[in-house]
Design goal:
Dna Topoisomerase Vi A Subunit, Chain: A, domain 2; two-stranded antiparallel sheet; Helicase, Ruva Protein, domain 3; alpha/beta; four-stranded parallel sheet; 6 strands; binds zinc ion
């Protein structure tokens, strides 16, 4: 017996979420059948409002609500530093550390020729423009420690070389609380090469 048409549509929509397969989507859909109508409407409205209530700052690319961008607030941030990140979500993770007070610049992705994400999509001209107009003194590259992250970091380094501004990249090393013999060779090699004075 097939599911009623609209239930299949609900399942298909839920399956667009990352990590949600057929079984999970079916479970969620059947659960939602028990919701009160007002809760279903509330969910629909909240989802529908995403494009109008959540925006990307036109300067840094970070995710913001309806207010002005808190990541670009010159009164609270050190404008001499720009941290380059791949996605708006990374800014929230870095803010959690309370270690960084500078500005951000969202690339929108990492170089990945196979997925059609080439250098033209990185919008480095916008980054260069901000570096010049904000009189930035240091650029921190905070990208993943993956093939794509490494390729993007190298590309950025070459693009930014002309500015003469010091560029740093997040250190890669041992995870907190880890024992040396449990760490893989690649991580250990990177931790050794990025060792810092103690
Ligand atoms: Zn901003």
């Amino acid at each position: 017996m097939r599911y009623p048409h609209h239930l299949t549509k609900v399942i298909d929509v839920l399956k667009r979420l990352p990590g949600v397969g057929n079984r999970s989507a079916e479970r969620f859909a059947f659960q939602m059948l028990n919701w009160k109508e007002e809760h279903l409407r509330e969910m629909a409205t909240i989802v529908q409002d995403i494009p109008s209530k959540l925006k990307h700052c036109s300067d840094c690319g970070c995710l913001i609500g309806e207010e002005s961008c808190p990541f670009c607030d010159e009164a609270r941030r050190e404008t001499g530093m720009v941290c380059v990140i791949a996605s708006p979500r990374d800014a929230f993770a870095i803010e959690e550390t309370r270690e960084y007070k500078g500005l951000y610049h969202v690339l929108g992705g990492l170089l990945s020729p196979l997925e059609g994400f080439g250098p033209d999509k990185l919008k480095t001209h916008r980054l260069l423009h901000r570096i010049r107009t904000l009189h930035v003194r240091e650029v921190v590259i905070a990208l993943d420690s993956t093939l794509e992250g490494d390729a993007t970091a190298l590309f950025l380094k070459r693009e930014l070389e002309t500015t003469g501004i010091p560029i740093s990249r997040l250190a890669f090393g041992l995870p907190m609380g880890s024992a040396l013999d449990y760490v893989d060779g690649g991580t250990l090699a990177r931790a050794l090469s990025a060792r810092s004075r103690f």
